[in-house]
Design a protein that fits this description.
The chain is α+β, with helices and mostly antiparallel strands. The chain has helices spanning 2-35, 41-56, 165-171, 185-195, 208-213, 221-232; strands at residues 64-69, 79-83, 88-93, 121-131, 134-141, 156-158, 200-204.
């Protein structure tokens, strides 16, 4: 009877081993949603899922995750930056979209050079530098066909005076960039320092083609479980 009992127990043990890492991903998303009550819970869940999928695909775990919800108007604070280790919110800010993505609402997205539009998907940050827009942060787009031209397009995080609540009230929208997620100059340096060196940024809009094709959103529950286990062991 002992071998028979083991046969029944083994699937249960495997299911338990899988559920623990999945529970970690779920608990992380729940903690971030609690820390950012004004954020769309679905968007936060997708961002956490994408970050876990990136780890499962061989990327190193990250300490920071930025989430931009471009389904919101530019007059609303639609950028959140999280500390994943402490599970707390570091920044909740205005952020610009590209001038060819729309007026107050971003509705068009592009990965093409000279499109002056915002790109969707998961990005990994690189190093900071000082350029024509001051202190800035380079990013690598990780999603072929959606944002993988980001580096060549010089899509970076930088401060810009047109990202201003005063302008939002006066004009019905903040200023627009050439595709960069520009932020208020007053917080740009601190935000960039928190995000530089291999952190992740998740740029969201309910674009059905991207949602269906993104390998970071659609990597499978088993893959997320493996990634979650790796992160929880650190």
């Amino acid at each position: 009877m002992a071998p028979l009992r083991i046969g029944y127990l083994l699937p249960a043990l495997l299911l338990t081993a899988m559920s623990v890492p999945l529970a970690y991903a779920d608990s992380l998303a729940a903690a971030l949603i609690k820390a950012a009550p004004k954020a769309n819970a679905k968007v936060i869940n997708l961002a956490v899922r994408a970050s876990q999928c990136s780890i499962a695909q061989g990327a190193a775990p990250v300490q920071r995750l930025a989430v931009i919800d471009y389904s919101l108007p530019s007059t609303e604070q639609r950028l959140w930056v999280f500390d994943l280790k402490k599970r707390k919110l570091l920044f909740h800010e205005l952020v610009a979209h590209g001038r060819n993505s729309g007026e107050n609402m971003a509705v068009n997205f592009s990965n093409q050079n000279e499109s002056f539009a915002t790109s969707l998907g998961l990005y990994r940050t690189q190093q900071s530098y000082v350029g024509q827009n001051g202190y800035s942060l380079r990013m690598e787009g990780l999603e072929p066909g959606f944002n993988d031209n980001a580096f060549d397009r010089a899509i970076v995080i930088h401060g810009a005076p047109y990202v201003s609540p005063v302008l939002a009230r006066a004009n019905g929208r903040i200023g627009r960039s050439l595709g960069c997620p520009a932020v208020r100059p007053a917080i740009a340096h601190k935000l960039i320092d928190s995000m530089k060196g291999g952190q992740l940024l998740f740029s969201y809009y309910p674009d059905q083609r991207w949602l269906k094709k993104s390998s970071f959103i659609n990597c499978g529950s088993g893959t997320v479980a493996t990634a979650s286990k790796s992160t929880s062991n650190r």
